[in-house]
Design goal:
five-stranded parallel sheet, Rossmann fold, 12 strands, about 375 residues, alpha/beta, 2 domains
């Protein structure tokens, strides 16, 4: 699914206008934010946080309420994620929590939020296990099952591939997206020649790539994050494997190109946003982000921005309905209906998920561009 998905006025202006209501005009509202903000995968959390911060600044500039963002680095550790959830729950000023880089950490923390009654909107957690995990949990990113399936279909129908070899990271994310991709690709007529796995932090992929070279597929699908994807691509090219490489939203990061260089040229990944695809709706966001942070936004920046805008809308709806409580805010999230955003309109279904579409993006001349 490609092309211009968006319509309507600029999301920031539309939402900022809607939140500038008397019910929330006074006082400061505290929102928790947690993700991996250090280590090899800090880019996911850092980009989400920048998007949140831009949304907060724009809401205030438009005359809306002010928000305090209380941040916590979970360091990619489930135990730390639980402790952070307990801390947010204990702080009665925190009205909602945003962020989350890893599904495993969100899954560990959800029971804590469920017990204390605190809403969460994740923006980088895609495990299908989170669907319906709690009435207090929602996310504005598509699930692995949806995204992997769409890439599998695109590989067959859009790229006309006949065979593929899958290599994925050995965790919930990698397994989930690889299984969804493989199932959809095979259903669409692609022959799956094999599957290999690796653990996060792996640096030498010679064993897996030697098997892949012997199988001679039309393409390699990497179900993993940008750091390992860049290494796999580089080592594949060194072994003379020149086939099409496919990746996931976990690889849709400028660091993929920085780390992989010429090896990732031509690689195709997917995501719900990229600054290379400017529309009337996204142009203002891209310009504002670049002016504030001196860098271009990516999909996780946009998802963080939209999550904060949805949270501001939930607080507005809750305030209009009466007392501003955690329960009222949670109920209000469920009443959000097609809220405009830079990743498309946001509506949360009964499972806490959100419908949407993907862009397929190709690395061309050292930048992501819309795949043809």
């Amino acid at each position: 699914m490609r092309g211009n998905r968006f319509s309507g006025t600029i999301a920031a202006l539309a939402i900022a206008a809607s939140v500038a209501q008397p019910a929330l005009a006074e006082g400061e509202h505290t929102i928790g934010f947690t993700a991996a903000l250090s280590g090899d995968f800090a880019a996911f959390g850092e980009n989400m946080l920048r998007g949140v911060e831009l949304a907060v600044a724009e809401i205030a500039a438009a005359g809306g309420p002010t928000f305090k963002i209380e941040t916590a680095d979970d360091r990619g550790e489930a135990r730390e994620g639980v402790l952070i959830a307990q801390r947010f729950c204990s702080n009665k000023d925190v009205m909602a929590v945003l962020g989350y880089s890893f599904s495993s950490i969100a899954l560990a923390a959800v029971p804590v939020y469920d017990q204390c009654g605190l809403s969460v909107v994740g923006s980088a957690v895609t495990s299908p296990d989170l669907s319906g995990a709690s009435p207090w949990f929602r996310r504005n990113i598509l699930t692995d099952a949806v995204q992997g399936s769409m890439m599998g279909t695109y590989a067959a129908e859009g790229l006309k591939l006949s065979s593929v070899y899958v290599i994925h990271q050995q965790d919930d994310y990698g397994i989930g997206v690889a299984n969804a991709f493989s199932t959809a690709a095979e259903a669409a007529g692609i022959k799956l020649l094999g599957t290999e796995a690796y653990v996060l932090g792996t640096r030498d992929f010679a064993t897996q790539l030697t098997k892949i070279r012997a199988a001679a597929p039309d393409a390699i699908f990497i179900g993993g994050f940008y750091s390992e994807a860049a290494k796999i691509a580089e080592q594949a090219r060194q072994l003379g494997i020149g086939v099409q490489i496919l990746g996931t939203d976990g690889a849709l990061n400028p660091e993929l190109i920085t780390l992989g260089g010429a090896a990732v040229e031509g690689m195709i990944v997917y995501g719900m946003f990229d600054p290379s695809i400017a529309t009337d709706t996204t142009s203002a966001f891209i310009m504002a982000y670049e002016a504030k942070f001196q860098m271009a936004p990516n999909a996780f920046s946009a998802l963080g921005y939209d999550a904060m805008m949805a949270t501001a809308e939930a607080l507005r709806l809750a305030g209009e309905a009466g007392a501003l409580t955690r329960t009222a805010v949670n109920d209000a999230y469920g009443r959000i209906d097609a809220l405009p955003g830079v990743t498309g309109p946001t509506t949360f279904d009964e499972m806490g998920d959100r419908a949407g579409a993907l862009y397929f993006l190709k690395v061309q001349d050292g930048a992501f561009t819309l795949a043809q």
